[in-house]
């Protein structure tokens, strides 16, 4: 059984996090337009960034946001970005990261977390549905908004 653990994003592991590989076709789904637009107003004090270590090696990255005062409900407690190295996909890394963010959200008093993705054949939709997210709406750019009740 592989050992999974979280570590704060730091100078020590950021190069490995930035070097995570993707499977062919996944690159187009990395950052939905909505996140790019909202990024200009994200408060660094609300960011929650962690790497996932698989047997001691960086295999994933998750960036969450916790801002109960956000005017957009989908950005109050959300997965901002989740990347799992191509070689580690299917090994529980993504679910482990999402579960950790959900636990942090519960600890902070949130009742659900959200995520936004672009629909498409090689996109993350099946993953998010598999771990319990349900579609609750769509952004102005046609991206899916999913939510997981905690």
Q: Give the overall shape.
A: globular
Distance between the termini: 27 Å
Looking at CATH, the homologous superfamily is Gcn5-related N-acetyltransferase (GNAT)
- Count up the helices: 4
> Overall pLDDT, averaged?
89
Strand adjacency order, main sheet:
1-2-3-4-5-7-6
Report the biggest beta sheet as strand number plus sense, adding barrel if it closes.
7 strands, mixed
- Got a strand count? 7
Order of helices and strands: EHHEEEHEHEE
CATH top-level class: Alpha Beta
**Architecture (CATH level 2) name:** 3-Layer(aba) Sandwich
Strand content: 25-35%
Tell me the helix content. Answer: 10-25%
Radius of gyration, rounded? 14 Å
How many structurally independent domains? Answer: 1
Give the helix/strand class: alpha+beta
Low-pLDDT stretches are 32-37
CATH topology: Aminopeptidase
GO molecular function: acyltransferase activity, transferring groups other than amino-acyl groups
Organism: Cryobacterium arcticum
InterPro entries: Acyl_CoA_acyltransferase (IPR016181), GNAT_dom (IPR000182)
Protein name: GNAT family N-acetyltransferase
């Amino acid at each position: 059984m592989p050992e999974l653990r979280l570590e704060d994003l730091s100078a020590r592991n950021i190069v490995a996090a930035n070097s995570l590989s993707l499977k062919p076709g996944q690159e187009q789904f990395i950052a939905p337009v909505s996140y790019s637009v909202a990024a200009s107003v994200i408060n660094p004090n609300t960011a929650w960034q962690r790497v996932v270590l698989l047997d001691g090696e960086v295999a994933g990255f998750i960036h969450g946001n916790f801002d109960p005062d956000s005017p957009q409900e989908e950005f109050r407690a959300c997965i901002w970005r989740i990347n799992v190295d191509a070689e580690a996909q299917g090994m529980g890394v993504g679910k482990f990261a999402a579960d950790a963010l959900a636990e942090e959200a519960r600890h902070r008093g949130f009742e659900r977390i959200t995520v936004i993705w672009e629909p498409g054949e090689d996109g993350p939709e099946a993953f998010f549905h598999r771990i319990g997210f349900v579609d609750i709406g769509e952004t102005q750019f046609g991206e899916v908004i999913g939510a997981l009740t905690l």
